[in-house]
Specification:
alpha/beta, D-Maltodextrin-Binding Protein, domain 2, 7-stranded mixed sheet, 5-stranded mixed sheet, 7 helices, 12 strands, 30% strand, binds phosphoribosyl ATP, binds zinc ion
Length: 226
């Protein structure tokens, strides 16, 4: 059972696409920290809300383990890890609390430029490279398509050229990376953006009020930005 705490701890990406916008959002919500930029822990000054700077992939697990209370992470990462926990028979103890309006991208199926795309049925029996096996598996199952999933942790877009896979399922924003690898997106299986993630069950100590205050302020900032 989670320890009783009177400070709220938020995990954000240490360095990457979501780190600056996450910090900017929290700063706009009135948070400030005593910190040096490269430190892993930032002590909250204006409110008892601390930051932990981590790899984005670690954020759902940190919430699940109760090391952090909230996190700012891509919906793609949160949903993938929820699927992974479900597949392992573990309870999914985190969920999306708010969509934050930055870090937008799609998890898309992309095929070689030369393919004459006719629809999902064309994927049957193909090898699909991805870093999102759980999201892809769920989507394939829903479409009743049997295909082989090739799990790669990086450079997914070169897999077809290397002969490791026939096509890919990867994150896309501008599409330039796909184009540079002679691939074209044909359908989106998830629309993603940065989200505030938190536990499924409410806090029972001082963190409840802190989280409520933070949400109220964040909602105010997000409304103005709209
Ligand atoms: O070190 P750490 O593990 O924390 O960082 P990371 O390298 O895993 O994550 P990072 O910073 O690359 O991405 C963090 C999050 O940003 C992702 O989980 C997504 O939610 C979101 N995001 C938004 C993206 C993109 N847009 C995106 N374009 N994540 C990755 N990409 C990739 C894309 O797959 C392609 O390879 O960026 C490349 C450029 O994309 P195009 O389409 O503009 O060419
Ligand atoms: Zn990562």
């Amino acid at each position: 059972s989670p320890a009783v705490r009177d400070r709220l701890r938020i995990a954000i990406q240490k360095s990457g696409r979501l780190s600056e916008p996450a910090r900017a959002l929290l700063a706009s919500a009135g948070l400030s920290w005593r910190e040096s930029r490269d430190r892993l822990f930032c002590y909250g000054e204006s409110l008892p809300v601390d930051l932990l700077l981590v790899r984005d992939d670690d954020i759902p697990g940190l919430i699940a383990d109760g090391v952090c209370d909230l996190g700012i992470v891509g919906r793609n990462v949160l949903a993938e890890q929820a699927g992974e926990r479900e597949a392992a028979g573990l309870p999914v103890v985190f969920r999306e609390w708010r969509a934050l309006g930055f870090g937008g991208c799609r998890l898309s199926i992309a095929v070689p430029d030369g393919w004459d795309w006719q629809g999902p049925a064309q994927l049957a029996g193909k090898r699909i490279a991805t870093s999102y096996p759980n999201l892809l598996r769920a989507w394939l199952r829903a479409q009743a398509i049997e295909a082989d999933i090739v799990v790669l942790n990086g450079s997914v877009e070169i897999a077809p050229r290397l002969g490791q896979a026939d096509l890919i399922c990867d994150l896309v924003s501008s599409g330039a990376t796909l184009a540079a690898n002679q691939l074209k997106p044909v359908l989106d299986i998830l629309h993603s953006e940065a989200v505030l993630a938190g536990p499924v069950t409410p806090f029972v100590d001082a963190r409840a009020e802190l989280a409520e205050l933070l949400l109220r302020r964040m909602d105010g900032v997000l409304r103005i930005r709209d």
